[in-house]
Task: structure prediction
Amino acid sequence: MNKIIKSYYQSKILFWNTIRSEWKAINRDKAVIEIFLSITMVILLAYTYIYSNQVVQKIPVAVVNQDATKLSRDYIAMLNASDGIKVVTTITDLQKAKIAYYENKVRGILIIPKYFEENIRSGKQTTITTFSDASNMLFYKQVLGTISTINGYFNAGIVIKKEMTHGKSYKQAIENYTSIKTISNSLFNISGGYATYLIPMLTALIIQLVLLMGIGLINGTQNEELTMKFNFPESLHKGRITPVLFGKAVLYSLLFLVIIPIQIGIVYTMFSIPVRSSLFTIYIFTIPYVFSIVFLGIAISSFFNKREDVLLFIILTSIPSLMLSGLSFPAQGFSIFYKILAQFIPSTSGIDGFVKLTQMKASFFEVFPEWIKLWLLACLYFILAFISLKLRLHKKLKTI
Result:
């Protein structure tokens, strides 16, 4: 019984010593402070500001008007009245439009053919050709989407006018043309804005990047200076690494208790990004997320002797983490191998749960599967961190 009590008090002392030592290491290392401040706030603020317009509007396009009739000019006026595109030049020569495109003056070209008005009035089908910049999917989608919408309205206007010439009222003409009425509702991201889609995912990803870089720098410094042995000499004994690991995890969790409200409270409020869940629920979900990242960072940094090597490795692995998170491409399109690989990265489940909580108004029970996955990852990386740290400490002890 005395051994159990003694072990408990030793672990308790080591736990608090770890928190104090890690906090001193953070305060002492300017690079770590800059990472926590600059990346956590400045980069998130900068990215949010860049995408604050939410939707790309008034994309410049060139119209090659080969018809030059009133009906073609009415069509161009409808294009200009839309929010999606803006006709910056109207010409009759396709070569001039190509030059404007290659000089990046326009992002799309639209060709109105000869006999446009004549064909329409005679009931013949006419074709409008569109060229759009597919190297940028936002421009591509907006140009084609806007032109398709305008074509729909323009066609409707022609059909309705023909119906009215046959003696039908405006209401009857509309009912005959639109036998099916569509009501479209955007769920969660009502404005269809890019910032509302991107920033919540980026917030969760930044937490992982900041933690891994900060822990990598601190542990890399300790590896260089051999301070791990002197700070935690009793951790070399059996079972004494556990309080060290939990001390680090608890400290970083407490740090993010301060950082997350700043991110959500300031950045999200400034740019009108909705938060549809309570801060308490977000905290509860974030705990295993932070724990899994901390243990992963300790496990990774234990394999490197220099802090620069740790930082370089984490930066290189941040790109695959970004790709596998589903931020740049839907995870449903991944092969089975990459779907399995993505599950071992904390940000995959972290982003899913964070977005559901902040944007989809999910309850805690609706993100419970992601929460359990993060706890399982925390246990896995705790074991890896325990083994790697134990090996590192014994190796350092032999070299002294």
Notes: The first strand starts at residue 59 and ends at 65. The CA atoms of residues 236 and 390 lie 7 Å apart. The chain has 15 helices and four strands.
